[in-house]
Automatic annotation (TrEMBL):
The lineage of its organism: Eukaryota, Metazoa, Chordata, Craniata, Vertebrata. The chain crosses the membrane at residues 163-183, 189-215, 236-260, 280-299, 308-329, 359-381, 393-413, 471-494, 527-547, 553-571, 583-602. Residues 673-806, 831-1041 form the SLC12A transporter C-terminal domain. Residues 32-65 are annotated as: Disordered. This is Solute carrier family 12 member 2. It comes from Vombatus ursinus (Common wombat). It comes from the Eukaryota. Belongs to the SLC12A transporter family. The keyword Glycoprotein applies.
Amino acid sequence: MSRRRPLGPTPSQSRFQVDLVTENAGRAAAAAAAAAAGSPAEPPRDGRASGENGAAKSKGANVSGHHHHYYYDTHTNTYYLRTFGHNTMDAVPRIDHYRHTAANLGEKLLRPSLAELHDELEKVRAPNDGFANGEEGTPTREAVVTYTAESKGVVKFGWIKGVLVRCMLNIWGVMLFIRLSWIVGQAGIGLSVLVIAMATIVTTITGLSTSAIATNGFVRGGGAYYLISRSLGPEFGGAIGLIFAFANAVAVAMYVVGFAETVVELLKEHSILMVDEINDIRIIGAITVVLLLGISVAGMEWEAKAQIVLLVILLLAIIDFVIGTFIPLESKKPKGFFSYKSEIFTENFGPDFRDEETFFSVFAIFFPAATGILAGANISGDLADPQSAIPKGTLLAILITTLVYIGIAVSVGSCVVRDATGNINDTITMELTNCSSAACKLNFDFSSCETTDCNYGLMNNFQVMSMVSGFAPLISAGIFSATLSSALASLVSAPKIFQALCKDNIYPAFQMFAKGYGKNNEPLRGYILTFLIALGFILIAELNVIAPIISNFFLASYALINFSVFHASLAKSPGWRPAFKYYNMWISLIGAILCCIVMFVINWWAALLTYVIVLGLYIYVTYKKPDVNWGSSTQALTYLSALQHSIRLSGVEDHVKNFRPQCLVMTGSPNSRPALLHLVHAFTKNVGLMVCGHVHMGPRRQAMKEISIDQAKYQRWLIKNKMKAFYAPVHADDLRDGTQYLMQAAGLGRMKPNTLVLGFKKDWLQTDMRDVDTYINIFHDAFDIQYGVVVIRLKEGLDISHLQGQGSLNFFLTYSCFHPLEPKGPVAPLNVADQRLLEASTQFQKKQGKNTIDVWWLFDDGGLTLLIPYLLTTKKKWKDCKIRVFIGGKINRIDHDRRAMATLLSKFRIDFSDIMVLGDINTKPKKENITAFEEMIEPFRLHEDDKEQDIADKMKEDEPWRITDNELELYKTKTYRQIRLNELLKEHSSTANIIVMSLPVARKGGVSSALYMAWLEVLSRDLPPVLLVRGNHQSVLTFYS
């Protein structure tokens, strides 16, 4: 009888190993859980697991009512999925694999990684840490991810209560009751309908755009801010979020003051003012906003109930007006109301602009009445299904409110004349011969209004709707309802938007307002801030100046929502897949342009102020570079633009005038050789491509793991340190193979490296000579692939990785100095050599001062040796340095050679301070230097003349880097030249900031690696920083235009 294994993992088991006993135990546990819930598990049939569709067993069951949801657990051995009845670890598609860990919609499940499916079974271990692609904070798979919302007590609204009601209440404002009749009087019925239609076109296009964005993925709280920021990125989102939240906060004050003014008018009619008009508005406004705050803080459910009550009152007021239009009382006729008359309709159809009003000024007054379409979207976080609710609720609200606006405009224009005296004695008893006005035809003479001011009629009385209605107090109640509902909606919207903005940490100073309270995560701190802003503006009570700015703030957000849809469609991102299909990118662009035009129509200075504020905030957020990645359309368009330009560039032939040094720099870890990185960056920044090559050697599996981690880490490091470079890691058996791979494959189209940059191998005398052979062969490979080669040598060295700990990023480069992080424990002081190395590693980050760049242009390589120092002098840190040019020549032709070089440099338009012709370049070097060279190469010589032929041949075959006697004799002159050049360099350039010198070329197969390395060593020893440069002998300079 076999013993049963424990349910937990054992050391020898992989997370995905097949263990039938464990699996059966897991199945039994699931069945037991189901039985405990009162629903016995059905036994498996035909040897198949009961969850063949991919829902595997879990340690526990999530029971809701009579439904059982089994989630498989990817973190224990009970996870064993029998997909389609077969033994496989593959998981079938399901929504839980695609959740963000921060989403509170359910459990985030992790599908098996590719390594877990693909690697040999014994190699499968606990999965790696890492972030899923584009996710906002995915923790390691070691921890079970269970972000499940507590659904109990959370209030979520449907599309009617959450969007339709809010939008209708916000769109139907005071304008409906006290300004629409005046607009009809000024513009006439025809143009009034046109005004309403124009406003509706703008809001409808914005509604369509909002619907498109809202249905392109899950929408969280934040309304307009969330939609814009996730579409256009944090720069536009952060700018619009702040002003939109502020606009909503000030809108609370506007609506409350509108309510207070109406109440004060009623008090004045009955002569019961408390203090005076302005102070009564302040008192009533302050009391009102405190009550509204109480409703808001009580919770969204209470606020929603209040909105329903206010909507009912508003609808009753509209019905009251409509009924009133059919009841023409005799007492109302002197005030201009005659019920529906064709004469009045005909007379009022055309415009009659007075008091310098125009069509656009009337439109500017009406348009704010059409805003409010984002009231539903602004509480997107409190909607049960924002993707469905926002399009349905917003568009239906626009349709209903537009029809009501048009209906009331036509009704009031057909019932009420423009001017009326209100005097019952102005009736006509006898027929007039020149009777032309509608009032005259209806037996009233209001001709006196042409010479004196009248108080009644469309043009003179803002309370026309009260006068027409069947029950006037209900219209006052409607005005109260319209103002209070709009104030309440804005009071809820502003904190929600501001909280979403603060959660994203776009403005770190506002972080404290991100905190939410209670089940609904209510932004209580935001409510208090909104209340204080609103109260402040209520106490000012001068809202005529601020009102157009608020309207422009709303319009700016509408414009950006429309532009977001155009931008996302233009970027052709595969992630742009709105479920709402009734949008068009060009119509959205037209909508954005119309919003900008309307901003100027409403108030030109307010429009300019809005643009300045948005631009200022945009620049601020761009400068701060918040560390967020939302997959915005800005990123998508940047990619598309880069792709299109790269392809276009590929079709263009190279031209010498457009040559740029595009460098593949073998840095290893970019932070390990800062001097190499900064020097190359100095002449490639904003000029050419720079790729930091890093060859990972060792076991392939380990290297691949390191590469995947390093790719993102070091690219971020380059960006953080303002290096305009790319990081390119590769795995290879040795440095030579890796460098070959990079030289052949790095880059894209014309954006490919053409110059290989290496650091000088300082430790070559102490290291394994096979490594030296590999190093020198890289030079040969580069020349074979037609690359230029640059070798950089600092006498202190380049590599500081041994000072950084085991590959950890303990050092950060700045442009002023090199700071190690504060050590956690006691650290031994650096020795003198390391201290000098550390100082040397930062020397190219500092301003170089008034010194020289010495160019030893001994051999014509196409001009790269001259181009690099010129590019250095164009940079701010090097601009004070002068170029000195050194050339080889003959003693009897020094003046001629100098003039010839001066002519060439002037044709190349390269400034130089001096040209020196070295006539003694071929003089034999000092004897002690020759002796020192011979002593240096002695350990690497073959001495074949002292050995038997077979032994010498075998030794040369096994150690090809060894220097033969024949080779040494053959290249004696070249050896002496390198030694002599070092003497001349010490004589003429020992004080230069940097020396740029022609790199000697060794014939492949002719010069051994040890001899070539010895040449480079003796040539560049004990000097200021040296760049040994050899172009690919294609011209990189031209004097033709």
